Amino acid sequence: MPGSALGGAPRPVVRTDAGAVRGTWEPIDAAGSTGASAAVFRGIPYAAAPVGDLRFAAPQPPAAWEGVRDAARFGPTPQRGDAGITLIPEHSVPGDDTLNVNVWTPDPGAAARLPVVVWIHGGGFISGSPASPWYDGRAFARDGVVLVTLSYRLGFTGFGWLDGAPANRGVLDWVRALEWVRQNIAAFGGDADRVTVAGQSAGGGAVLTLLGVPSARGLLHGGYAMSAAIAAPSVEAAAARTRHLARLAGVTPDAAGVSALPETRILELQRRITAPSAPRLLRDVHGLLRDGLMIGPLADGEIVPHDAVRGAALGASAHVPLALCTADDELMGLFAPRPILDRAPRRAVLRGLGASAAAVDRWLAIDEISATTSSVALVGRYATDAVFRSWVPRISRARAASDTAGATWTSRFSWHAPEAEAGAPHIAGHCSDVPFVFDRLDAPGVERVAGQAPPQALADAVHGALVRFARDGAPGWGADEAGAGPTRVFDLPVREETDAYASAAALLEEGEPHGPAS
Question: For residues 385 and 507, is the Cβ–Cβ distance under 8 A?
């Protein structure tokens, strides 16, 4: 139950293993009409500032402090500068102590033992910020769940391959944050034995990655992956990208050489080595489908032993329950109409995107695909299935075939603003489900993905599913049967369907271990 310490009540103080922190009491609802409140603690360091010799090192424990540290404001973010207008408002905060967590709790006391959700933000592993108002955790506190959001090293600093430095430093940051949760969350009212790791886009990819990380075993007890973005560069490709960056900078392609570069220079070079090689639509999409995200977690054989599919099915934490969710139209709004593309044969367009002839035949035979009216829409639909939705049946099947994997649940976010609402997005696009899962339909910028009047009843359902999963280990519908469902469809009305990922499953090849059909 949420607390009620508002008005003149003293600010809440909690002692962590590094020192005491003082948070704030904030009303559960924006208007403050209920009188209920949550205790909120922001910017608590879970690791030392990754600067100097620690810039490309494994995260180290933060230095202890004397007295009580103020935790009223968000801490510094690894994202630097103005991110511009993005689907999710993502604020950058300057400063060095970028490895920090934020906590929302209804009851900051060791006796509460409430379920915990640890949220990892999206941003393609190169951007994003836990300071977004969309990630406000008061609705979780209202419903008896402790929410933790975290920041981690992004881009080349977090994931670039460097001889002389540990691989997957961003992954090590996630593990260190989960260790902090294990050590400290009881003092905030959380139960360290009921920790669900959740995230969307790159955050969803982080959830799947963590299932296969040996050092994360015992730190998470459930995974909730929304629109998981998978970065699967090979070690060879990652090393080649480092050599490219080093050549541009005139330094050696190792930790010693790159460490000599200022942060602003690395960020500039990162943009250059990840920029699309050409403005042509098919070539750019083909590269995304073939290579995935250019920077992110990679299977280095030690920190991350396996790719995302094998990790989710056979990894150190594959036994935990897992929920997989996507939006129906993830990439449908990405491509502008191009009449010349509509004159091209559909099979040729899909083959140009790298789909095999057999996959093209299976995919085009799906009714909802054959009804697509334009080739640009077809490209968006194919990219949605290949980049995001195909991972759901792929991982569900892999976990079903594993003797060690836990139960898997699947869902789809299908709702979009009604056609009658002028100017609203009429697709269930990427990020459109985030304000629903946080039950923050009043947050700034939500209209960009959900229009002016998103339905509260749907937020109750989407948010409630994650709350139930964190509390009970199941989201409230039947577990998936080897990729066939049942799948919860979040729409009006909410319903269950079988074979709800049929078009995505059509892209999978027989015996395919990972990646889109090619």
Answer: yes
